[in-house]
Fold this protein.
Amino acid sequence: MTENELIWRLAGGSGDGIDSTSQNFAKVLMRSGLHVFTHRHYPSRIRGGHTYAEIRSKATPVRSRGDGYNFLLALGDSFARSPDEEAYYGNEEVKPLVENLDDLRDGGIIVYDEGLIDIDDVDSVLETSLEALAAEHDWHVYPLDLRDIATEHGREVMRNTAGVGATAALISLDLDPIEALMSDSMSGDALEANLTILQAAYDQVRDEHEIDHDVVLPEGTHEEAPVLLSGSHGVAYGALDAGCRFISGYPMTPWTEVFTILSQHLPEYGGVSEQVEDEIAAAGMAIGASHAGVKAMSGSSGGGFALMSELLGTAEMTETPVVFVEAMRGGPSTGMPTKPEQGDLDHVLYSSQGDSNRIVFAPGTIEECYEQTRRAFELAYEYQLPAIVVIDQKLSGEYRTVPDSVFTESAPDPDPGTVLTEEEIEDAAHHASGSYLRFQYDADDGVVPRTLPGQKGGRFLTTGNEHNPAGHISEDPENRRRQVDRRRAKQEAIRETLDETGTHQTRYGTEDARYGILVWGSQQSTVFEAVDRLNETDDSVSALGVSEMMPFPESDVADFLESVEEAVVVEMNSGGQFRGLVQRELGAYGDRLYSLLKYDGNPFEPAEVVDGVRAVITDDPSVAPPTTRLEPTKATNSR
Amino acid sequence: MSAFNAIGADQEVDTDAFTPGVEPRATWCPGCGDFAVLKTLKQAMVERGKNPDEVLLVTGIGCSGKLSSYFESYGFHSIHGRSLPVARAATLANPDLEVVAAGGDGDGYGIGGNHFTHTARENHDMTYIVFNNEIFGLTKGQTSPTSPKGHKSKTQPSGSAKNPIRPLEWGLNAGATYIARTAAVNPRQATEILVEAMDHDGFAHVDFLTQCPTWNKDAKQYVPYIDVQDSEDFEFDVHDRDDAAQMMREADTRLHEGEILTGRFFVEEGRPSYSEEKRQTGQMPDEPIVEQYFDENAEWKPSSDLLDRHR
């Protein structure tokens, strides 16, 4: 907690360029030798509505958001102003300032655009004065007319640049890396104007304000070359390196990010991207492309993924390999389109009629997004079944510095999996009439190699109906049993492969800990940060981040739970779906599993996990944060 | 060198080559129009010199979906209404395949109607055969999207209050570039039309009237049929969109009155197929995408080539 860090929050109106400005600033901080982590908060609107982006930076790797922040740049909401005299939006234009004060740490900095934000309005909304609050919290307030600086040297939209210049002056950040970055992305008059504005704001702060705060830029250097990217990039780049050359999709937040990245790059990688009429078509097309031999991906978020359900089962029944991404957001129904939630675990595990037979991975970090997407392709194409990579709006959209070696260490792997060549087809078992026996009973690990349309001598029928070894529809009980058993055998084979070649669970914290935290997906890093804090005091805590949802890593989870006395399952939903999965798979430990749940649209902050776990350790539920719900153990499900 | 040597193979085949050993005999009801689709499709394949290993037949669900069980080729019997997405993706993965999708009127014009619209719009190089029997057969005789207004069934006991779909005009408006209607009672014309449809570079929509003697009409009710190209009563330019629209409207109206007009209703030459469009605009490689997985010399560009933008 004592390590110096800058947590810079840029607040303004949705549509004011908050995202691009913050990403550029994050890159500047990265280039200055710091590790950075970004968090976005935005409403489901294109224009208007209050939004902010937060960048946490320090000399050592950053895993998650911090608790609160220490630098506010409040731009004012330019879209909040109504052209009518009767301002429809009321006092909305002051929100970027007044709505962000709760989390601002004592001693923090406030820069606000007095060109847009009227201090009298601020005080009347606050029902006290900003000055009084600042005195109380030791906040250092720097009002600046950013709009005026921007319009004097360029255009009003460039006030973000003025804000960045002011920030640099206040934290003693050199302007060179900012100017270099601007030169990368702009040219001509726009570049000139922005450079002038940057300098003017910098100078104005230096000339007109006495800098008397303690917030300073941390100093650091990178041991490995860093890149700044998001979980969506991790998934997309993992797909590219797995040899994925086909993607089909329909826009839906937040899945659109993965879809967009792959759509932009697939053609230059010799592949194809298809935006189609609906998610049913998207799923069907990925299956069709894969059936014809191309490694294919589709995906969506909860609602769109629901439309893919029936075809997901078709991929299982026809044994067509395919990879789906499910980028979760708050549900049910339209839910909260731009907010993260982990409410779709049951949905991705069991969606579609019949017993499910698929791979489900829930990566917890950007690195894991990359690795597990590659693994999902590898296993899907080896074992001929669908694999789902489930992420959420938090992981898909947060940018963080990661070492570039994550992406450079292993070469692309375009292996099409268990597919015969025409030469091999000649020696393979055929029906007397010449068609290939695609669904023979006796097969290692349940997998019969595929042939592909157009291959000589490989023709076969596949169907979503139950079928016999030749792929023709059959309702014979003996055949049914043997085919179901063969397909199910893949689950055990995949489990063994994972256990032998390396599982995707991550253990973190004290060995021989008394208390455990079980976590899955995007909350992993936040939990690990909480573990550090708990162990800094006298607590003895260890965490297990679980990524393999199906086939379930029984021994990894059971061993972990055996090693602790009590464990808290931390997840962003209201039903405790992962705790349910653990109990379903292990049939035990109900008497030592608590649930710490959060479902208000915001991801856990480390302090909330710390307090939630302390509530269990001290047996005092009142310590649990009010933004969460702590569920007790279920004594009836014990070992 | 291709990894798909069945495609374009110089091989003499007869219709028996398209008869599967597993289920050589179709089990549709006696007198069913579906037999004619099977027979004429086999004949058309032979006439086009195709072999079973270069054909991908994707079917939906219903009596019509059983076509892939009785037709020897690569077959994908998909689910209700979803044959077109599966089929059209295969044309992108491997444009040299002969891709045919088939399903019933409920499958194509009802549950799969959105896919019909958009597959036609995109003009994929493939053939879509709709078995139009104006009824749901396999589920025992419910009113379908092409059933005439007033049609009574167990699920519409007082008669359908809906006007039927007009499939030909729908295909035209959506963007299909070859649109024909044929009938099971006229196998000679059906074979010719299927040959033309498969030859056509673009989305060919064949509305195939297949009588359902069990739940709807028997073959007699589709006779006499009139070929609009042969009849002197109809003068229209099959390449003219407006003429075609008018002729289609006429044909569907008369169908509901019991008069059967068949033939080619619209043919647009020269519009590039979807694969061609994508290739011309740099969105798809010239070589079939699937070949690179079997090409030892293929270069697999790593994702790390993209990292500069993140530094």
Summary: Residues 506-631 of chain A form a domain with the Rossmann fold fold (CATH 3.40.50.920). Chain A has 23 helices and 22 strands. The CA atoms of residues 225 and 403 of chain A lie 6 Å apart.
